[in-house]
Amino acid sequence: MTTFRGVLRRGRGWLPLIGAAALLGSLTVLALPTVLGRAVDAASGDPGKWVLIACGLIALGIICDVVEVIAGTACVAGTTAWLRHRLVGQVLASGPTGARQFATGDLVSRVSSNATDAARAGPATLTAVTATIPPIGSLVLLTLINPWLAAAFLGSVLLVIVVLFFFARRTAEISLAYQETQGRIAAALTEALAGLRTITAAGTADREQQRVLRLLPQLHAHGMRTWQVLARSGAQAAIVGPLVLIAVLAVGGIQLVNRRITPGEYFAAAQYAVIGAGLGSLTAVLGQLARARAGIARIAEVTAVRAVPYGALSLPNGPGRLIFDDVTVRAGDELLLDHVKLDLPGGVAIAVVGPSGAGKSVLAAVAGRLRDPDSGQVRLDGVPLTGLSHAALRTAVNCAFERPALVGITVGEAIGVGSAQPAQLLASARATHVHEFVSRMPDGYSTPLAEAPLSGGEAQRLGLARAWAAERLLILDDATSSLDTATELQISETLMGDQQRRTRLIVTHRAATAARADLVVWLDRGRVRAVGCHDELWLDARYREAFG
Question: Do residues 344 and 514 make contact, with C-beta atoms less than 8 angstroms apart?
Fold first, then answer.
């Protein structure tokens, strides 16, 4: 889980340099009034030495500021990259079940803007801490000059500190609410973009625009609250800040008239009062720190999601026998699979049929370990899927879906996903009849995926080709529904006559596909209604109704 301390530790390569530069800069700020005061006192003599020292301190302060800016920028950039890698890695490692807890647009918001805000935690913390050194140092040095000056300074600065305290407390809450609202708007926009064809066809663009932007008034309200707090605190600091200077100048004037301090000390005291008054400018830093804490809180929600655990086992030699041992899957109070018990032979084609909502896709997801059952166990050739290593599981089991998400830069990469050898890629493409249309593209398998004119059926075939490399269990979740009849028949024949003799679990709505399968699993309302061959089950009118 990502914590504020963890983010600070990540920037430890740059934070010492930032801290050293900020500390040295603060000491320079403290030393400069004293040096200038000495130059004032030496004005009737030879102030040259003190003037040179003052120039050196000014130059040193500029160098410290430059180093602090460069190191701070590098620290934020590096920490942002680390947070984004951590976020994306955690989302992918948590699998479909974990990622489903967050809307896509909200995740994008967390990875993009919230990660940047969170990465500023280290530099902002150091800036806030080192910003307290000049006022504390001013108090100490004023005490050395004259205790009454220190008392006037302290009384006024306490008012500034109260203003900053209430500002920090109010800003943290508002920043988190603002970021959460931004995430919800991003989620709604992502949903609208995903369904843009449907929205256009339905003529509901205006209504969808209102839905996406319905939270804008709430976002505006959070923004206004932020600026109101900032403006109120800024006004309070603007009023309280000069009180520090007035109090120190008034007391210092009395002490100067009574010859208890020198003109140079009076000048130094005035400069220290200005430093104390400048404490009110910390509102910007504290606001940045509040946004960082809010960003870390939102990132922590994602990194707290449990990654899918894998074992260390490998599969023994076997035909691909698949056993569902009293498997139950729930979604809230709803039973998606209800104590499913199946012992499916290996090396055969198994059709999974049933009406909508019967649990077919859930059964396929559990078989491919895209989600784990709430109770029960799934075993492949005697080994629990949860006990297999990631490499062993994904080498043995692969899935193709009704609406495949094609990833990669080129068409070839969409099939091989960066791991298949050229010969294996070509074999998968030929088996799924992908080669027929890809070979007609100008650049063949090197055609950029974004520029490839793919129909729905061609996209499905690419998804099937990607999954074809499975060595033990090939799962098709309605993965041929968009194919024309001729192509579907060709691929079905390839599936049924698979020379590799893998187990093929095929979710289908087509009676013809079920008829060509070696075995049919009939599901209804999350339960196994029957298991047998299609011809025998076809005698049951309720089975025939499952195909509409």
Answer: no
Distance between CA 537 and CA 510 in Å, rounded?
14
Q: What is the pTM of this model?
A: 0.76
Per-residue CA distances from 485 to 209, 351, 492, 513, 544 (Å) = 39, 18, 10, 11, 20
> Which residue type occupies 321?
R
| Phi, psi (degrees; rounded to nearest 5) at 148 | -65, -35
Strands 322-331 and 334-344: antiparallel
Q: Which residues pair with 324 in a beta bridge?
A: 342, 378
- Angle at which helix 263-277 crosses helix 15-41, to 10 degrees, equals 150
Predicted local distance difference test score (pLDDT) of residue 234: 67
Q: Report yes or no: 547 and 511 within 8 Å, Cβ to Cβ.
A: yes
Contact 255, 148 (CB under 8 A): yes
Max Cα separation, the chain? 117
- Residue 105 pLDDT > 80: yes
Task: Read off the pLDDT band of 328 (50, 70, 90).
Answer: very high
Neighbours of 542 (CB within 10 A): 12
Return the closest-CA partner of residue 508 out of 474, 479, 473: 479
SS3 for 321-375 is CEEEEEEEEEECCEEEEEEEEEEECCCCEEEEECCCCCCHHHHHHHHCCCCCCCE
CB-neighbour burial class of residue 148 (10 A; exposed 0-12, middle 13-18, buried 19+): middle
